[in-house]
From TrEMBL, chains A, B, C, D:
Transmembrane parts of this sequence: none
Protein name listed in UniProt: Uricase
Catalytic activity: urate + O2 + H2O = 5-hydroxyisourate + H2O2
Keywords: Oxidoreductase, Purine metabolism
Any Pfam family the entry gives: Uricase
EC number: 1.7.3.3
Biological role: Catalyzes the oxidation of uric acid to 5-hydroxyisourate, which is further processed to form (S)-allantoin.
UniProt keyword Zinc, yes or no: no
Keyword S-adenosyl-L-methionine: no
EC top class named in words: oxidoreductase
């Protein structure tokens, strides 16, 4: 047995950069949370504390701000690629860069006034091994909270000795969608692609008469792949936010799926992947 | 010295009730978080554990669900009044009821499909001492996050020995508004009133050329009072979410208020009240 | 009707200051979160944006750091008094100062190495109107999570038409205590007082055979007052963290209070005050 | 191109089970958060909504409670193995089970009275493919917050065009440790192993004169492996919780590492693995 260093990475997480750009009196606003992870020739820093291969995380933060000034912030996928490629290109000791970006949406209230929309958060996860190396772009969203008040059934499941759940032909189906989708290339119309993928997720959620949350999940992924040729793989994580119909019989009332208790924990958690089977998997693109 | 019981109250907090109502194939959805506090003849339960005067918090929760079924959920102010009056009327030991409700907004995606909007949370705080007694309705909102990318100055302030801040003629002004407003009566067009008050807050925030966040706060309260005759007092709590222009000079770049670092803590916190001076204060309405 | 400015205050919230002091090779560590609110002659800043009366919140933050250097950090009550008195004394426009401090506890692991304890957070809330004026000190704690696995009953309560709860002679009683206590003067042995008050809360919680959480709350407050002569009023806020015995009968098992489901929401919320009736109330000390 | 279902799993997350056991008048308390994920022959449920292969997540929750009653809760690793093996053994459609458990520690205050300790959370992640199949146990902890007030340097790093950080010979080093360690087998003295691994992490953090957080991380992993023969791989995730020495020169004061500002975001994030190179990797054990 020898004790050795295994996989490792480091970087500056959660740099909160806000970029204002001016179009005459009209301002535009971008609001990002940028997290960087770098890896490469990092044995010495772990084994002896020799930092000669280490670009400080403080410099990474500075780079985010400087690039926001120099290049502006276009689509977050492009901003992530710009940063990731820079880090790998700039230092021989840095072999791989990972840039994760969350973008918060704002709605315009005036020429230079904005209200945070509070709708889902748009995300991007970019990897680059530099020119000629492996690169990948995964786009996505979190906190897209959706609910169908009918059109959801659950029955025909296994009944073991610990099963007390009654089958149902009508229930609320609610979830907070975290979705990520891998692009076929590192070049796409990111903004239009995002809006299309988001629309597909919502359409499939609303349009699927659901016999299980797994079925809904699969239809959501399938719809994205079918409509978005630039996307080759979709990963979905969907908590089943249980809404229990309250038993009102003790108070002499029926409850035909009108009054529900929205529970916090525990919750079902459904995770699944839908992909084009002609494309090689890329495990490194996702983490 | 005698050790005695002072003010006290108890109740069920954060009952999460979701109400679906059907208009043919079209469903309507309401999503509330209801917290109840009752007080009255509660000496015995504290001093000896005699529960004869205590309506269990579990029964209060049941009442929320049963009332949602029996009466439906109209405006949250009305639902709060209904509950508060019920508790005081139903038990002689309960003299005062306080009902606090938060409502989460959903946007329609289909006849029975919804997306949580994520915009601000609407609130109501109702007190009732029962028929003939004191009653009050305070409406409000939380988590209304707004930002002006220009039109904000800060200068002419005190400079003491610990002051290093430079005056500025142009900065980002950003805050997460918590606003509450007291109504003159317990009868109003709550929904229209809410939309009008919300619009006034946004208009005044966007429209005020600000020399200080206090000035903006006052204009927001003033605009609500001026436009909403049914409202007699507005209380605002507004954290100053600092956005610091990043010094890019070390990288040979200027930064004419284009790139900002959005800080978490510490933050300024501005709290203030704007009111009609002809109306008596009502401290009990707010807590 | 005239629209006027009502009560208001402003300040820097949540300045996170960590103070290291050296005793040879042995270091001592203090870790605080300090929030300041000032009020006084602030009409102009609200009405016209004239900041001549305003000490910037940035200067308040600087003062926290400078005072930590100059005076060190003794007990948080004293540090709060020092800051509050300074602000009122330093500027004629500032008439009232409120300083709220939370302290995070660390346990020693070595001469200069520490582990955050994670036990409750100690708090202080200080008001000062300056020399000769009103002053008050409220100490306290939050997040003291306690549980009795027996010795708690609940029965004899009101049964109305919405009551389905069964009376019980044995249940889990669990809560997260937020306690605050007002001191008779602004001079006390704060550290010893804190440890004594904390011990009293724990002793009374553990030692009370409880017929209701209200009874337990009262005994906790009473024990603090009886043992701590320097304290004249205790306010407690205690959520009833419900632990429901799981019905295992469907699986052919009994459950004699052995297996519980710990619920999140809704929860009971019990709030109450215990005080020395010979001492005038001081509503301004608490908010 | 064919759109197909890829990797997927489902289960009940965050079942909060509390178990009381009685030793005469003395009670013992265990407080867990249990999350289950199952996978296997789940094509049909995704493609058509046929639930014939699906054990409801509600039944999984019931199983947690029933097993807590039937078997008691020993070490969380054993409880996880018991559950994981049960699910795979009980249904032919379930091929793989993953059980993740977090345990909250309580300190005794009396025979049946407890205070939540608030120290770190102990974790276990168990996989089982059933008898004869792959099994793994990963133990760990989260929220172990540690700080060294000296004995940390950072210099000799890369200086690129975006580097403004000054090298330092003395700084605070603080982090919130998330550690997980893989066991060589599924049979160990889990409780003693946990205490030893925890002690090793603390000892190495306190005892390493650090030239970089990476060096400290490696020493922590190394110390666990060297002292705990039952462990073959350690993964650590350690945010660098920056504490910045405040510049007090504007106030005529020096600051010899006495007064610090504890920042929230951004933060460095250091992730690394230390392992016995003679043992095959087991990527499936960790996710």
């Amino acid at each position: 047995m020898a004790i050795v260093l295994g996989p490792n990475r480091y970087g500056k997480a959660e740099t909160r950069v806000v970029r204002v750009s001016r179009d005459g009196a009209t301002h535009h606003l971008r609001d990002l949370n940028v997290s960087i992870s770098l890896s490469g020739d990092m044995d010495a820093v772990h084994l002896t504390g020799d930092n000669a291969a280490v670009l400080p995380t403080d410099s990474q933060k500075n780079t985010v701000f400087a690039f926001a000034r120099k290049h502006g912030i276009g689509e977050i996928e492009d901003f992530g690629l710009l940063l990731a490629r820079h880090f790998v290109a700039s230092q021989p000791t840095i072999r791989h860069a990972r840039v994760e970006i969350a973008e918060y949406a704002w709605e315009r209230q005036g020429p230079h006034s904005f209200v945070r929309s509070g709708r889902e958060v748009r995300t991007a996860l970019v990897h680059s091994d530099g020119p000629g190396g492996r690169e990948s772009v995964v786009s996505g969203l979190t906190d897209l909270v959706v609910l169908n008040s009918t059109g959801s059934e659950f029955h025909g499941f296994i009944r073991d000795e610990y099963t007390t759940l009654e089958p149902t032909r009508d229930r609320i189906l609610a979830t907070s969608v975290t979705a990520r989708w891998r692009h076929r290339s590192t070049d796409a119309a990111w903004g239009r692609s995002y809006e299309r993928a988001r629309r597909c997720l919502l359409e499939a959620f609303a349009g699927t008469h659901s016999l299980s949350l797994q079925q809904t999940l699969y239809q959501m992924g399938r719809h994205v792949l079918a409509e978005c040729g630039e996307i080759c793989e979709v990963r979905l994580s969907m908590p089943n936010r249980h809404h229990f119909a309250v038993d009102l019989a003790p108070f002499g009332m029926d409850n035909d799926n009108e009054v529900f208790f929205a529970a916090d924990r525990p919750y079902g958690l459904i995770e699944g992947t839908v992909l084009d089977d002609a494309v090689p998997t890329a495990p490194g693109a996702w983490s």
